[in-house]
Amino acid sequence: MRKTEPGGGPTAMPPFVASDRPKHGLRLVLHYAAFAILATIANLGTQSLLLSVNDGAIFYYAALVCGTGAGLVLKYALDKYWIFADPGRDIVTNAQQFSLYSLMGVATTLIFWTVETTFWIVWDTHQARVAGALLGLGIGYCVKYHLDRRFVFAGRSGLAVRYAAPAAPPA
User: Fold this and answer.
1) Residue 19 neighbours by CB distance under 10 Å
2) E strand residue ranges, the chain
3) Which residues pair with 2 in a beta bridge?
4) Residue 163 β-bridge partners
5) In whole numbers, what is the pLDDT of the chain averaged over residues?
6) Which residues contact 118 (CB under 8 A, 6 or more apart)?
7) Contact 97/152 with Cβ under 8 angstroms?
8) Could you tell me if 143 and 108 are in contact, meaning their C-beta atoms sit under 8 angstroms apart?
9) b/e for 92-124, b at 16 or more Cβ within 10 A?
10) Which of 12, 37, 136, 154 has CB 3.0 to 4.6 Å from 115, enough for a Cys bridge?
11) What is the dihedral of CA 109, 113, 116, 119, to 10 degrees?
12) pLDDT number for residue 90
């Protein structure tokens, strides 16, 4: 698929993008929920893998960080291309956009970690930790969608696009 940049020339959309238009309505909700579930599986799967080696406090915090990283990278790619139909741009703009996306995730990650850790401390069981993680991730993803829509993938008004280096002129 091809999409035209505001500056004029077309940019190639990755071949796995379903549409060059952002999703709306029920389709948006279903895709976003499915992608949140996939990122949650990546997150908790990574945590479980690390905690299977050792479930001590140091490994627990390492599992939180590694799981969050795995979920973040997967969710960014899915959101960028499928939810917001954001075209591929130059490496500088993509790096700025990923940085902003990650920054928006800091507050939502704190929600997730706080709920998960609270459940773990209060009930001291693996099942409670997972329940807290699922609840925290659910709340966090709802908040994150609204932040990303407003600040990261807002087209020409998005912060990442607005402060990005100008695109190179077409050859």
Assistant:
1) 12
2) 2-4, 10-12
3) 12
4) none
5) 81
6) 132
7) yes
8) yes
9) ebbebbbebbeebbeebbebbbebbbebbeeee
10) 136
11) -140
12) 85
Helix (H) or strand (E) holding 58: helix 57-78
Mean pLDDT of 119-132: 94
Interval 68-78: pLDDT, tens: 899 999 999 99
The SS3 assignment for 36 reads helix
In the chain, where are the structural domains located?
A: 20-162
- Give the SS3 label for residue 2: strand
As a whole number of angstroms, the distance between CA 125 and CA 44 comes to 15
**For the CA atoms of the chain, what is the radius of gyration?**
18
Please tell me the predicted confidence (pLDDT) of residue 163: 40
93 CB contacts (<8 Å, ≥6 apart)?
160, 161, 164, 165
| Contact between residue 130 and residue 58 where contact means Cβ atoms under 8 Å apart | no
Tokens 């238009």 locate to 21
- Please name the amino acid found at residue 77: A
Task: Copy the structure tokens of residue 127.
Answer: 């099942």
CA distances from 28 to 22, 38, 50 (A): 8, 15, 33
